[in-house]
C-alpha cells in the first residue's frame, strides 16, 4: 500500500486540494474582478460566476494531472441508471425538513447575496453555473481523489455513507460558512449549512453509487431551485398560521421596543438646524478654470468645513472640504476646495455614476418643497453627471438621467498630479457656473433670484478608501466579506442619515444684491420653515404608520406613538390648528397660522 493510500494522509491531501482550488480561484477572480467597471450593474453576479467557473477549471486541470488524462474516475461519464424522481423527492424532503423549522427563527440580518440577482441571473448563475461547478470540485475532484477510502464510513440500515461522501459533504457545508461572516441572518445561515451538508450526502451517495457526476449536478441544481420555490411556500405557510392572530388584532407576542414604536421609515437622527450662507453678487467677471483666484472669489466667504453626512456624532472627515458661492444675472457660481493627498479619477463618460469615483456634488431645490430638484456631480477629470429628480427616491422618484444643464461651465484644477500614486498631492478645486435659465425650468420662483430670496442647497463629497496596488488606486475591501468598503460621505449641511435625498435637511442659501458684506447682513429664517418642519414630522409618522397598517391615518393620536420623544414639544398649543385628511392611500396635513395655511401630502411635497 503506497503512502498516499494511507487514510489520514489521503484525507489531509484531499482537504489541501480543496484549499488550493479555493485560494487559486479566489486570487485569479479578484484580479479579474478588479478590472470589471464599478458601474456595471451586474458586477456582483459576474464576479461570482467567474469565481465558480475558475474553481471548475482549476479542478479539471488537477483531475487531468491526478488521473493522467483520464477523467472517468472523477465522475465524467454517464454511469449507472438511477431514478430521477426518487432523487428529486429526496432533495425536496431535505430542503423542507431544514427550511420550515428555521423559518420561525429568521431575524433582521441580511439575506443571501443572491437575493439581489435577477431571475435570469439566478437561473444562469446559481441553478446552472454554481450547481455544475461546485459539483465538479466537491464530487468530482475531492470525492474522486478520496475514492480509495470508500470502504470506511457509517451505515444506516441498507444505506451506507462512505468516508469520501461524508468528508465532501462537510467540506461543501464549510464552503458556505463565509455567508455567516458576511452578516446574513443567523437562522438563515445555519439552515444553509445544514441543508448543504444534507445535499452533500445525497449528491455524494448518488455520485458514488452511479459512478457519475450527473445525478450530483441534478441534485444540486434541484436544491437551488427548490430553495427559491420553498421561500414562497413557507411565506404562505406562515401567513396561514398567522391569519387567526391577524383577525383578532395582530400577531400575538408583538411588542414595541423600549422608548416607542419600532421605526421603519428612515428619518434624520439630528436636530433640525440647517447650515446657512449669504451669497453675494460677483463683483467682477469669473473665468471658470477651477483656480478660484479672481478678486470676486477673494471677497466671498468660505462655508464651514464639511462634516460627516450623519452629523457631529460621527468622526470628522479625514480631509478638509469647503465651498464658496457667488451669483450674477447669468449664473449661480459654486467654488469648492477639496484637500486630497492622492487625487484619482477613472470615469470619463458623461452621466456615468460619478460617485463610483471620489467626487463633489451639488444639490439645488429652488422652492424648498423637496420635489423637482437638481443634482450635479463631478470628478477630478471634470466628468459630469447631472440629473433632475421629480421626487426624492423615498417618494418614488424618478431621477431623469437624460436631463442636462445646457450651458453649464465647469473648471477643475489639481494641486498635484492626477492618477499618479508615486507622489503626494495637496488638493483639487472645482468651479461651476450654473445658468439661471436652466435652473428656472422647475424653480417655481424667479431665477435669477430677487435680493433676499432663499433656496435650499447642499453639497456632498464622496471619498473612497484606497490602497496602491501595482501602481494603481484600488478601493479597499473588507477583509471578512471581500466586498468594497463603504464610501465616506462628507457634506456641508448634515443630513442625519446616509441619504442626500432628504432635501428638507439641506442648507439655506440667501441671495443678496450686493457685492460685499454689510453690517447687519444675516440670514432671515422665515417662520414658515418652523411650521413646515412640524408638518414634516407628521409625514414621517404617517409613513411609519402606513408600513405597519398599510393605510394612512387621519388621527394624530394614532400617529404620536411613532414620534421621537424628543420632538413632543412640536405638538403643543402653538401648532394645535392642524388637520389631517386621509383616504387610507393618501393624506394631506394642513397647519394654519396667522391666516397662512401650510400643507404636506403623502408624496412629501410641502406648499
UniProtKB/TrEMBL annotation:
Every CAAX prenyl protease 2/Lysostaphin resistance protein A-like domain range: 119-226
Bilayer-spanning residue ranges: 12-33, 45-66, 87-107, 119-138, 159-181, 187-206, 218-241
GO biological process: one example: carbohydrate catabolic process
Native source organism of the sequence: Eiseniibacteriota bacterium
InterPro entries to which the protein is assigned, alphabetical: Carb-bd_dom_fam9, Rce1/LyrA-like_dom
Sequence ranges assigned to domain Carbohydrate-binding in this UniProt record: 288-442
Keywords: Hydrolase, Membrane, Metalloprotease, Protease, Transmembrane, Transmembrane helix
Enzyme Commission identifier(s): 3.4.24.-
Protein name: CPBP family intramembrane metalloprotease
Molecular functions per Gene Ontology: carbohydrate binding; endopeptidase activity; hydrolase activity, hydrolyzing O-glycosyl compounds; metallopeptidase activity
Amino acid at each position: 500500500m503506497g503512502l498516499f493510500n494511507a487514510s489520514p494522509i489521503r484525507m489531509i491531501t484531499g482537504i489541501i486540494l480543496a484549499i488550493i482550488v479555493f485560494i487559486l480561484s479566489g486570487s485569479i477572480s479578484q484580479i479579474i474582478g478588479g478590472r470589471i467597471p464599478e458601474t456595471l450593474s451586474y458586477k456582483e453576479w459576474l464576479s461570482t460566476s467567474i469565481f465558480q467557473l475558475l474553481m471548475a477549471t482549476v479542478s479539471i486541470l488537477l483531475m487531468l494531472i491526478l488521473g493522467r488524462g483520464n477523467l472517468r474516475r472523477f465522475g465524467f461519464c454517464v454511469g449507472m441508471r438511477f431514478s430521477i424522481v426518487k432523487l428529486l423527492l429526496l432533495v425536496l424532503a431535505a430542503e423542507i425538513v431544514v427550511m420550515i423549522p428555521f423559518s420561525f427563527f429568521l431575524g433582521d440580518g441580511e439575506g443571501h447575496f443572491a437575493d439581489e440577482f435577477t431571475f435570469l441571473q439566478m437561473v444562469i448563475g446559481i441553478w446552472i453555473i454554481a450547481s455544475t461547478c461546485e459539483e465538479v470540485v466537491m464530487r468530482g475532484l475531492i470525492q474522486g481523489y478520496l475514492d480509495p477510502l470508500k470502504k470506511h464510513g457509517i451505515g444506516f440500515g441498507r444505506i451506507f455513507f462512505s468516508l469520501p461522501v461524508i468528508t465532501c459533504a462537510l467540506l461543501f457545508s464549510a464552503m458556505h460558512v463565509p455567508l455567516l461572516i458576511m452578516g446574513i441572518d443567523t437562522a438563515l445561515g445555519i439552515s444553509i449549512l445544514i441543508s448543504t451538508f444534507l445535499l452533500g450526502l445525497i449528491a455524494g451517495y448518488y455520485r458514488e453509487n452511479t459512478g457519475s457526476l450527473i445525478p450530483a449536478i441534478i441534485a444540486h441544481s434541484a436544491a437551488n431551485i427548490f430553495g427559491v420555490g420553498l421561500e414562497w411556500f413557507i411565506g404562505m405557510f406562515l401567513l396561514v398560521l398567522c391569519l387567526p392572530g391577524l383577525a383578532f388584532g395582530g400577531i400575538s407576542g408583538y411588542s414595541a421596543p423600549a422608548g416607542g414604536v419600532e421605526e421603519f421609515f428612515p428619518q434624520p437622527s439630528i436636530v433640525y438646524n440647517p447650515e446657512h450662507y449669504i451669497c453675494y453678487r460677483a463683483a467682477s467677471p469669473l473665468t471658470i478654470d477651477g483656480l478660484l483666484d479672481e478678486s470676486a472669489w477673494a471677497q466671498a466667504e468660505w462655508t464651514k468645513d464639511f462634516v460627516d453626512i450623519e452629523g457631529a456624532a460621527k468622526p470628522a472627515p479625514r480631509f478638509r472640504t469647503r465651498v464658496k458661492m457667488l451669483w450674477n444675472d447669468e449664473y449661480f457660481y459654486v467654488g469648492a476646495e477639496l484637500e486630497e493627498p492622492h487625487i484619482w479619477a477613472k470615469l470619463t463618460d458623461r452621466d456615468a455614476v460619478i460617485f463610483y469615483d471620489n467626487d463633489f456634488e451639488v444639490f439645488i431645490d429652488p422652492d424648498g418643497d423637496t420635489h423637482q430638484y437638481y443634482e450635479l456631480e463631478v470628478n477630478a477629470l471634470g466628468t459630469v453627471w447631472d440629473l433632475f429628480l421629480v421626487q426624492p427616491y423615498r417618494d418614488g422618484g424618478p431621477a431623469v438621467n437624460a436631463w442636462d444643464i445646457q450651458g453649464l461651465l465647469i473648471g477643475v484644477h489639481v494641486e498635484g498630479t492626477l492618477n499618479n500614486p508615486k507622489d503626494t498631492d495637496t488638493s483639487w478645486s472645482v468651479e461651476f457656473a450654473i445658468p439661471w435659465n436652466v435652473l428656472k425650468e422647475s424653480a417655481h420662483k424667479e431665477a435669477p433670484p430677487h435680493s433676499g430670496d432663499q433656496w435650499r442647497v447642499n453639497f456632498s463629497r464622496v471619498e473612497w478608501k484606497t490602497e496602491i496596488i501595482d501602481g494603481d488606486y484600488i478601493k479597499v475591501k473588507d477583509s471578512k466579506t471581500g466586498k468594497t468598503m463603504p464610501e465616506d460621505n462628507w457634506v456641508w449641511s448634515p443630513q442625519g442619515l446616509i441619504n442626500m435625498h432628504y432635501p428638507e435637511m439641506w442648507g439655506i442659501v440667501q441671495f443678496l444684491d450686493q457685492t460685499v458684506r454689510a453690517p447687519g447682513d444675516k440670514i432671515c429664517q422665515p417662520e414658515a420653515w418652523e411650521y413646515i418642519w412640524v408638518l414634516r414630522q407628521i409625514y414621517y409618522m404617517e409613513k411609519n404608520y402606513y408600513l405597519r397598517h398599510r393605510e394612512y391615518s387621519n388621527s394624530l393620536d394614532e400617529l404620536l406613538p411613532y414620534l421621537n420623544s424628543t420632538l413632543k414639544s412640536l405638538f403643543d398649543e402653538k401648532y394645535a390648528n392642524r388637520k389631517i385628511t386621509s383616504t387610507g392611500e393618501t393624506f394631506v396635513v394642513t397647519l394654519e397660522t396667522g391666516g397662512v395655511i401650510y400643507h404636506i401630502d403623502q408624496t412629501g411635497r410641502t406648499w
